[in-house]
Amino acid sequence: MIDERSRKKLIREHSRLMNAADVDGLLGLYADEVTVEDPVGGDQRSGREALRAHFEEFARAGVQETMGDPVAGQDGSHVLAPVRAVMDYLPKGPVFAERGWIEAPEQPAGKRISWDYVLMLRTGKGGAITEFKALWGRSDIAVTD
Question: For residues 85-115, b (16+ Cβ closer than 10 Å) or e, as one string?
């Protein structure tokens, strides 16, 4: 277990590394046995290679997060934060449109995707992240200019 302040610092560092497209830095925050569910209710993936692929896709899309104030659970392992993210429509947008999460624009070049979600991280021994969940629904994501 790590204290509340350390978990809040961890989730802020996570966002900083995501904005810097530092995939190796992000992976350094995680345990080898990690589960990823983004969005919650979608496919759950396990392991660092699945996590690497997930983060690399968002790095290619130039994702930029703006994080609200984190909240740490009293359980000694969870931390959550509201996030607003913006990224280029390409390359992930067509996948989102296929899944029915957004409407595909007629001219995708130059379009962006924005969405609001809650990021939940759970830590294990030594403070490494063992679980990553992003909670958002279809009404929380949109294509923008």
Answer: bebbbbebbeebbeeebbeeeeeeeebbbeb
